[in-house]
Design brief:
Layout: H1 2-6, H2 11-22, E1 42-43, H3 56-71, E2 76-81, E3 88-94, E4 97-104, E5 116-117
Parallel strand pairs: 1-2
Antiparallel strand pairs: 2-3, 3-4, 4-5
Length: 118
């Protein structure tokens, strides 16, 4: 790639055009301001949602989901009881955009399994 770049008649113009193209879209974390907001990821209230106590496996899965949400500059992790099971459904969003959704298994998980990703 370096050799190809060196062979261009105007390297600076090429790099500037590539940067302009790459920066055309706003950064999802900062909205194009260059500064990430101090707001972290919000997780909906477990008590208010009447979800009960999380079993250890589900709590570890939730910890991983929140870590993923932070890494993806998400704003919310919404939780609710999955229909007809004791599992907990989650949705990770950044503003209005859904980044991922899945289920935290409340039953004893098979060794090595994690959250069910969709």
């Amino acid at each position: 790639m370096a050799a190809t770049l060196r062979g261009l008649p105007n390297q600076t113009a090429f790099v500037e055009a590539a940067l302009r193209e790459a920066l055309r879209e706003k950064c999802p974390a900062c909205g194009g301001t260059g500064r990430a907001s101090g707001v972290g990821v919000r997780v909906s209230n477990l008590r208010r949602q009447s979800l009960g106590v999380l079993q250890r496996d589900a709590a570890l899965q939730l910890k991983n989901v929140v870590a993923l949400a932070r890494h993806a500059a998400a704003t919310d992790v919404m939780l609710e009881r999955a229909r007809a099971t004791s599992d907990i459904a989650y949705v990770v969003t950044r503003g209005e955009q859904v980044l991922t959704r899945g289920t935290l298994a409340q039953r004893a998980a098979v060794r090595g399994s994690g959250a069910s990703w969709q």
